[in-house]
Amino acid sequence: MASKQSRRRLLALAAVAACLLLLPAASVATDVSYCDKHKDYPVKVSGVKIDPDPVEPGKAATFNISAYTDKPIENGKLVIDVKYFFFYVHSETRDICGETTCPATGDFVLSHQQTLPGITPPGSYTIYMKILGDSNEELSCISFGFSIGWVASS
């Protein structure tokens, strides 16, 4: 009798474990570093969430950057540089109001979406992102890492 009960408990535990493995992975915040750790930037970045993580070649990836400022941002730009190991592989400039609602003030989120080519090499990458105001003043400068997975989408 105890043997049957033990088997049932073991099967129930295995079923619960299998269900947990099938759940989608939770979005985890990515560590962010300021370019100049001693500078008091007007825009404070509290975190970055990347979906999916790791990024999949050929599929859209969303980078949500949570930030705060007490100075309204009416316009400006994001300057984004991407490094693969020691090599700069991509650079672009975006209108800040295309990535968030302007004027941005208080808590706000910059949401940047990018689809990487299916031939993008897997591995670890680093993004360097400057937030510049309308007079090209540096409002913030951050860097964070992300990974590109091994399998391209079909």
From TrEMBL:
This is MD-2-related lipid-recognition domain-containing protein. Keywords: Signal. CDD domains: PG-PI_TP. It comes from Paspalum notatum var. saurae. GO terms for molecular function: sterol binding. Residues 1-29 form the signal peptide. GO terms for biological process: intracellular sterol transport. Residues 32-146 form the MD-2-related lipid-recognition domain.
